[in-house]
Each structure stands twice: as structure tokens, then as C-alpha cells.
Amino acid sequence: MATPKRDLSLLFPASDAIPPDFASRPVEQEEFLVDGALRAWDGPSQEVFSAVCVRRDGRLEQARLGRYPLLDAAAATEALEAACAAYDHGKGEWPTMSVERRIRHVQDFTFRMKQHRREVVNLLMWEIGKPLPDSEKEFDRTVAYIEDTIDALKDLDRISSRFVIEQGILGQIRRAPLGVVLCMGPYNYPLNETFTTLIPALLMGNTVIFKPPRLGVLLHRPLLEAFRDAFPSGVVNTVYGEGPKVIGPLMTSGRIDVLAFIGSSRVADILKKQHPKPHRLRSVLGLEAKNAGIVLPCADVDLAVKECVLGSLSYNGQRCTALKMLFVHESVRNVFLERFVAAVNDLKVGMPWDKGAVITPLPDLGEVERMRALVADAVAHGAAVVNDGGQAAGTLFAPAVVYPASPVMRLYREEQFGPVVPVATFDDVAEPVRYIRESEYGQQVSIFGSDPDRIGRMIDPLVNQVCRVNLNSQCQRGPDTFPFTGRKASAEGTLSVSDALRVFAIRTLVAAKMTDLNKEIVEQIVRERKSTFLSTDFLL
User: Fold this and answer.
1) Largest CA distance in the chain
2) Tens-digit pLDDT profile for residues 445-477
3) Is residue 24 part of a domain?
């Protein structure tokens, strides 16, 4: 194992040395949003401690960021009642509102949201340790996603604005909401990935209850007034607290129509099983992945190294789309490892606001211990940390390149979701292809090479195992107009700007035989705007 060459504890700031522009200010949240009002909570609260440690009197302490309500089942039920009342079996103001008016409400929210950019970005850094550029990108990308989703909805509505006549039957086919949606996002993208389900669900006319992830709660606090002021009462509601206490009652009520959850398959299975009528529950799930990178003998090694470093260690490797297992052909093993290790060693480790920092604090001490355990297991089974990494201090964990990875190690198949990169070698490309085929997950794969014949032969079996094959580039979600989903235990449902709108709605139509009476009825409804559904309005 490489000898540690740095004292990571010295990278944490002293309490009086934090740059003023990035200083944290406690967020003492004592309310939750329900039925259009910020309801005061006088029950227990959860203390929130930062991913960032500070040095005090020679010791490292996680900075305290504030607190948020630990709601109970009664409070969660209030949020459910409000969402159900606002939907009112499809008769409520929001589900029957015209698409144009719903868009205006979401645009109003977006305008209000932009005013809190600095607060949210700062909390992203402090709560989950996300580097400043990535935190800014997450906020800006979320705003862009909202705007792109609005544009996609306009396109969808324009197509639906015409009538169809088939076999003597007149019909108009549109998309209608599904009901009450429970949105639960992940800690690694607590803003963006929560909003990639919440916003399309709202635009399609559903009412929403959303629960922020355990790590990444306070950054939503600056947006509560924006939700309250931009939407009718009960359309957006929040719950906080322990899942069994606040989510269990929601699911067992049977009144949740859509579960939008991004997290682990284990938790997703628990939630789905709690619903008394699972056949009525639509699920939109983003789950685990163990995306592989395959470096062929014909690969441009410098390009492969660059993309594999970005793919495996951007934001500490805490991305579902991260490259979590590298397979390198024996013929390029030595040169790849030499350059890959050098590139990983050059990554800057520091605080989220430090310029150029790539490796930043993990969200809590438990994640650090998990990384240590994965590395220790690999070493116990014959691997070594072949770079200057693997050491830890406080919430920092220096990235570890583990070689050679083998099937007996946890790292070989278990999603690490952190700054540990297992590398294995192969002689026959059938080996990594078999690994992907036998994996429990099926999100993406990256192939690095230059031989069209070899790559072409790999593509055909791989597209039947994963949902995206990346050529000479890291795995990734974007652009947001591309489908984002997975096979096996990696996902259920498809998310992208246009797909998300469809997944939170159902095709519904009004049909009538082409009799004189029916034509007169339809013409009068459309001409006098007696229905928001049956309409030929064209959105600009």
C-alpha cells in the first residue's frame, strides 16, 4: 500500500479562517409547508452538521449548520390531506387548470427561485461538500431544466391541440394528471434530481408532497416561500423526518398515486410494498448503478485516462452515473495504470470553495468509514492501493485506486458511491461483457477504443444490457433531452425533459361519433372555451 504523504486534517480551515463570502449562517428551520402556509412546528428537531469540519483547539469538528423539523405521522397526514384536497379527485383548481396557466405558475416560481441562488449554492457546499463550481452548476442546470421542460410541454400541448377523425369518430387526445405524487430526491443532487421529478409532476397537473433527503434538507429552506407564493394552496407540500414515521403512513394510506424516488433499490422495494394497492401505484425510480469503463487495446490511452478520472472521481465519485469499475486490457495495463495513478494523485483535495478542488469532504463520517471498509476488504483479498491515496481525516478521504480488483472483493460488484476506483484487467473482451451481463445493474457503460469493428461487435449485446453506451467518454446523464433510465435494478421509468412529462401523466381522450349533434356540441365547447381539456388553443 502506498505510504500516505499528506496530513489531510490540515486542509480543513480553522474556525476563524473561513472566507467571508462562503461563511455558513445557521438555518434554524421551525416550519414545514402544508396547504399553502408555512406551518410552525414545536416538536423535536434534527440537528444538522456540515460535511465540512473546522479545526478548533487541535481537534476537527463538523460545523453545525442548523436544524429542521422531525415531523410525526400526524403532520405527514396533514400534508397528504392537503395534497388530496387540492387534487380533489381531479376536480381541483390545479388539475383542471389550463396548461398555459400552470406554466405561468411554474415560471413565477422559477423567478422567485433565482433570487435565492447564492443561499442555495452556499448550503450545497456546506451540507454535502459539493465543490463551488458543481454547486453553481447544479443550481443553474436546475433552472435550465425547468425552462426546457416548459418548452417541451408547449411542444407536447401543440401536438395535442388538434382533433383526430378515425373511422367516423372524432377525438382529441391529451395527457391528464395521475393524482398525488410523492417526490423523494437523493443527497448527491438534492436540488436538481428532486426537481427533475417535482417540476414535470406539477406541470402535468399533479399535486405534490416532497421529502428532501436526509443529507441536503436545509438548502430547500430558502425556496419554501417561493413554493408557497407561486402555487395554489395544497399543490406543493413538504415533509421532514424519519422515513418510517412520515413516509410509511403516506404509503400505507393508499392515497399516493405516484412514487418518484431516487435512492437505493432496497428502500424503493420497502416503499412499494407498503402501498395497499401496488397495481395502482406508478413508480418512477432512479436507483443504483455499477457502471463499467472498458479500455480496449486500441484505445487512445491519454483520452481514456482523462475520461476515466472525470468519470470515476468527479464530485468524489458520488454520482449514479460515475464509472465504478474499470476493465483495462492487459496490453495497455501498465501504461494506463501509470498515467491514471499520476492523474489521480494530481487531483486537488480541499474545501468546496477552494479553487480547483475536485476531492472535497464526504457528507458524513459514516461514508468515510464505508470507504475504509471497502478498501480494507479489497486489500485483505489481494489488492493494493497503488496511488498516494486511501488515507482519511475527518470527512476527507483521499481517492484510492485499488488494483487488481477481483470477484471475491466487495468493490467488484458493490456500488462504492465514493472516491475509490477498482481496476481489473482482461485478455478477452468477453470478460467485461460477461461482468455487465451478470451485474444486478444496467444503467450505462463506457467503451474506450478506436477499432470500429471491435466496438461495433460490442455495442449490439451491450445495448441489451444497459440503457446508454458511451464511446470514448465518461458515463453521464446529460444532455437532459436524452433519455435517462436503466435496466434491472438501476431504474424504473424514464426521465428526460420530455419523457418526464409523459411519465407523470396518462393519455386521455374525448371521443364522439361524427353526428350533427356531436359536432355542434364539440364546436360550441371549443368556441366558447367551456373546457380546458377540449380545446384548440395553441401555446406560443
Assistant:
1) 87
2) 999 999 999 999 999 999 999 999 999 999 999
3) no
